[in-house]
Recover the amino acids of this structure.
């Protein structure tokens, strides 16, 4: 094997020594690629080079051969660096697989079921920036038409954020109350977050409690991106602002709550800051842009709207998102 | 100021012709042996990509002068299928680990400046510059 | 800069050409290290080598110079591989930082407090194989001397395992009962795991309920590595075997429980399979080895014992652990 | 069958002496130039570790024959402080990225077989073998 490579090398070198053409250099470089893919070290290349030269030109002065010996010695550390690259590539591949698996585990752990409620059309899209999603949607509902939705965003991205999110999910699971009001839910989860994670991790969360019978949405927010209300009657959008500290800042935080009654074709649009803080070459995307995108699909089902908004925002940003993206639309039908 | 010349890439021999053209220009501009070899390798890689993935295209070599500094610009243009996922082809180890060659990250490393524009179904335009220091 | 390196190279090469001594090779190799740390490519080394030779030996045949040109061309791809290593190292460093942060988040999320119980000396060590621990210890206790300990191991390592473990912790938190018996605890957590993770993820768990007043440990196991009982009176070890399926296999699984009364200087040794499934060049490390290690420190505090067992096992395995390592000793004093 | 010789490491010159001893033995055993250089580099690295971190110690070179195959064994022994975290020093990029040298992972790669024993406060014993193929 080594011998075969050696004689190939000698042949290629000999061609080049006969004629210093681009063609022969091209052949040589293609051969060097093959050598690398077979993990041939640079010191082995020099050694093959020396051996080939010795066979081709016996009469050279000793200085030439010594000079190659010196080069071999110089290349040993280069060869080690090359082997290190090989093992780094392998480790990178392993990490990639681990991340994929972890993303699956997270998706299964955090899975939630979209409720089916009388008179409500729900559209939902959540796209992680990297492998792991730092945005999270949680639904809870019962047969009597009560449903809760939490839209949360961990400050931070990637792995640490994803770990933190599992806590929110288990907090919600342990409450297990579809009739709970936003102020209770937010203060309970706030205490859990405050207790369980360190001081540099915060979570923003919007919580909405919907009652099908009355079409009333009661909402509260822990420092979360405001939801939007669309009134079909006027064709106008308004922000649903409501006071509340980020989860995890203080165990004593209390949360305001407000309510809104939905009429036919009214919509509540909930989102994370990944939707509103996109940037184009011309600057930030503002809410006006999002409202216009929604208006263009105003007669379509809620799921078509959220998908359209996402597709258009990706296009505007030249496919370079900078945050996890989550958008939910409740449309009263 | 700029001065150009080009090679159509259709067969593997054209790769060698593009290399030769690039090496000649690099030498005339005063690049040293190692930089000549690097520029030639970058051209080789780009021409080979055209040959393998687009079927045909063109390598154009331009001489540049900016603020009194000379440089060489390689333009690799094809109207092939385009690259579906640029982030992937620009990733280390994606093409090189299989010994497929330097790949586009290699071209980027060999040159000082690298730009790529690609549209699915329309083709790819890559521009890479190296300045004479 | 480049010129300075070139003239250093020439000087070192010249020394070697005068006298092919080990000393001169040593100097050369140290210099090659420096070159690598300054990101000098191998093609640059050949080029410096050629330039130095040209200055030192003008009268060489052209063949020699051509041969170096060919080598430069051969080395270009090697140079690229070396640069790739540089960027892989950097990416690895970034990932390491993200993993460190995530490991901190996990540690804070999963933190548990070792109970202080009358008449019980507790030693505990849990060392993750990689950044994230897939083994987990959970304690719960009350002022009346009741304490529960769960020792769990996710099948699988790294990130996916770590994500899964947060579920076990929140399950235990939501039970919040220091007097619960192993069979209840194991079936509750089994249902949570079965519901929340996909079919390829399982958790093994040992649960022990200790009552300080009676010195009785009641234990159960969900497919976990058996604990060991050491009887001070006889100086012998026995395995505490007890039946139970891994958590997450079937929601219907039921769990056996048994009890043991600890006398003075008796010990219960709980562990994960990372302790027993180590391998040396001679084969697996068996329980006999572990028992002997414990006997050597039999009069020391429990914490000294666990640390000693770990240190010795690491030594025996030539520092190549293959799993997360968790060892807990309860010693009746 | 084995045949040994050794060098005490106290000064930087002793590193060179250990290298020389190793290279001679490797040459006599019939290792080629490249393998001689690899074995010598491994010795150099081990001797340098002793010199830098243990203050003093010994490099011993043994000739081995097993099943008719010849080999060389390097033993690096010191009674220095020991290595607190072996896993860390065996990690890629830990020592090399700063250009500090091949480090222990390098020694492992240069040789066929590598074993390390270390005890805090007592010292370190490293054995590395290379077989003649
Ligand atoms: Mn976030
Ligand atoms: Mn966000
Ligand atoms: Mn495990
Ligand atoms: Mn395990």
């Amino acid at each position: 094997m080594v011998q075969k490579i050696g004689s190939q090398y000698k042949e290629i070198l000999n061609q080049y020594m006969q004629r210093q053409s681009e063609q022969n250099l091209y052949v040589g470089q293609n051969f060097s690629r093959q050598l690398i893919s077979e993990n041939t070290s640079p010191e082995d290349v020099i050694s093959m080079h020396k051996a080939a030269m010795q066979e081709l030109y016996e009469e050279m002065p000793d200085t030439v051969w010594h000079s190659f010996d010196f080069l071999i010695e110089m290349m040993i550390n280069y060869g080690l660096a090359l082997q290190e690259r090989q093992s780094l590539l392998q480790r990178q591949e392993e990490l990639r697989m681990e991340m994929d698996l972890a993303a699956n585990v997270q998706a299964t752990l955090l899975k939630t079921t979209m409720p089916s409620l009388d008179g409500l059309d729900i559209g939902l899209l959540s796209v992680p920036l990297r492998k792991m999603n730092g945005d999270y949607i949680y639904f809870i509902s019962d047969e009597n038409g009560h449903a809760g939705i939490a839209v949360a965003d961990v400050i931070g991205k990637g792995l640490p954020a994803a770990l933190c999110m599992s806590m929110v999910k288990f907090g919600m699971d342990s409450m297990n109350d579809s009739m709970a009001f936003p102020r209770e839910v937010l203060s309970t989860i706030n205490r859990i977050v405050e207790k369980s994670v360190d001081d540099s991790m915060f979570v923003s969360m919007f919580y909405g409690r919907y009652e099908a019978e009355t079409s009333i949405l009661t909402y509260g927010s822990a420092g979360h991106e405001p939801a939007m209300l669309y009134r079909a009657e006027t064709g106008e959008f308004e922000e649903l602002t409501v006071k509340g500290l980020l989860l995890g800042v203080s165990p004593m935080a209390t949360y305001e709550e407000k309510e809104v009654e939905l009429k036919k074709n009214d919509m509540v649009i909930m989102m994370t800051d990944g939707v509103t803080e996109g940037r184009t070459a011309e600057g930030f995307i503002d809410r006006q842009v999002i409202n216009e995108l929604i208006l263009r699909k105003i007669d379509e089902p809620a799921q078509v709207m959220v998908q359209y908004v996402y597709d258009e925002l990706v296009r505007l940003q030249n496919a370079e998102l900078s945050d996890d993206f989550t958008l939910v639309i409740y449309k009263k039908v | 100021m700029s001065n150009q010349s080009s090679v159509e890439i259709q067969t593997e021999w054209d790769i060698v012709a593009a290399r030769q053209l690039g090496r000649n220009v690099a030498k005339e501009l005063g690049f040293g042996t190692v930089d000549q070899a690097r520029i030639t390798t970058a051209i080789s890689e780009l021409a080979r990509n055209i040959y393998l993935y687009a079927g045909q295209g063109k390598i154009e070599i331009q001489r540049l002068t900016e603020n009194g500094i000379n440089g060489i610009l390689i333009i690799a243009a094809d109207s092939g299928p385009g690259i579906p996922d640029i982030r992937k082809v620009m990733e280390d180890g994606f093409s090189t680990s299989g010994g497929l060659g330097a790949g586009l990250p290699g071209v980027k490393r060999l040159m000082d400046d690298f730009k790529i524009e690609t549209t699915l179904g329309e083709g790819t335009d890559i521009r890479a510059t190296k300045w004479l220091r």
User: Anything to note?
Assistant: Chain C has a mean pLDDT of 91. Chain C touches chain A through 68 residues (CB under 8 Å). Residues A 134, 153-155, 157, 161, 324 surround manganese (II) ion (ligand 1) (CB under 6 Å). DSSP finds nine helices and twelve strands in chain C.
